[in-house]
Amino acid sequence: MLRRSKIRELLAGEAAGGAVLVQGWVKTKRSSKTVSFLQINDGSTLADIQVVVDSELPDHALMDSLNTGCSVNIEGTLVASLGKGQRYEIAARRLEVLGLTDPEEYPLQKKRHTLEFLRDMAHLRPRTNTFGAMARVRSSLAFAVHSFFQQRGYVYLHAPIITASDAEGAGAMFRVTTLDLGDLPTRDGAVDNDADFFGKPAFLTVSGQLEAEIFALALSDVYTFGPTFRAENSNTSRHLAEFWMVEPEVAFCDLDGLASLAEDFLKYLFSYVLEHCPEDMKFFNKWFEPTTVETLRSIVDSRFERITYTEAIDMLKASGENFEFPVEWGTDLQSEHERYLTEKKIGSPVIVTDYPKDIKAFYMRLNDDGQTVRAMDVLVPRIGEIIGGSQREERRDLLLSRLQEAGLSEEHYWWYLELRQFGTAPHSGFGLGFERTVQFVTGMQNIRDVVAFPRTPRRAEF
User: Fold this and answer.
1) Helical H segments across 209-254, by residue range
2) Is pLDDT above 90 for 447?
3) Exposed site from 45, 172, 380, 439, fewest CB < 10 Å?
4) Domains in the chain, start-ordered, CATH in brackets?
């Protein structure tokens, strides 16, 4: 029995002159009295392969039933193509129809569809060129994430999806409950959480960071890569309610070491996708963002500049630019500020460090000035921040003080404080939003178009 050949391999000529089996979906067909042609794609590549079906073939009668979207099984011989536009084609010996499609009902005819139209049919949009390319690039980037850390001896941690802790104290978490919302049990006039499955309020996680710190302080170098959730009622092109985060945590590492890790990480990811997805990247460069390949190559070849938050504010104030958001020390940098720094002022990726403590999370290490923390943001052209991280506060008394300032319960973070009590050590970590990275790499304008099934307010189909 023939092994199924992927079209990507056939177009490279790996089976030229030999018998092949191809299974895929029909893109187009055209027929004449003596011969018919099918364009077939199996999702392994952007390019289709042409199948030539001679009218003398007993199975030729099946051609009448084929339309765009049908699935087929084809046995034949891979031969040099006499037509233009392809090096190889398949001379069919046997044709089998696996799944028919009604051309009057199939919504993905051979034409360009808007991305908005395709979002309403996430079950079919992977068959389009755009979402096939997106899926392959996303898959390649995910593999590169694991390759980078595994090659460096990091341990991959599966952080819990259900948690009782709000990692950053920012709220906006999805509640997980087995209680009947139409008949909630009460005690002393409030919901009786003891009657719930976990006996306390539980939520979908917003970050695997805190759990990663636990393992970093035992195994030294770990990373998490999994789904996270945030219940923000935001409908922007940059926000999802369900998204994946890459979060390494490194013991005995200060902020300078973390910044170097982040720079190496991004360069590795971008080099990997340029090397392994050239066809798909060329597609995105042509149809969505004409500078995406050039930008990625520039980042790979760049030295990331490092400046402090205070230096960044001084640069922005001296720029003469008319920013929409005013620039003042103590306010967070906006995307327009970050892009000015990377695209106009410095002209390369920038790592900004030492932010005011009042605009950063409680767990970031306090600097000696008492006003700033050992935080960093990695900024790149086109989007601004792509990585955020910090050296963690390893001193128990200062961590407790920061918890109290943030209005968080010491009781909820008892175990986090104990990590600073039993063999505490300097450690650092960062977070990279995976969807935003895929969005940046492909040049797609809306984050809903770089995830298989986007979860946004009032949207949880499929």
Assistant:
1) 209-219
2) yes
3) 172
4) 7-107 (2.40.50.140), 125-171+206-449 (3.30.930.10)
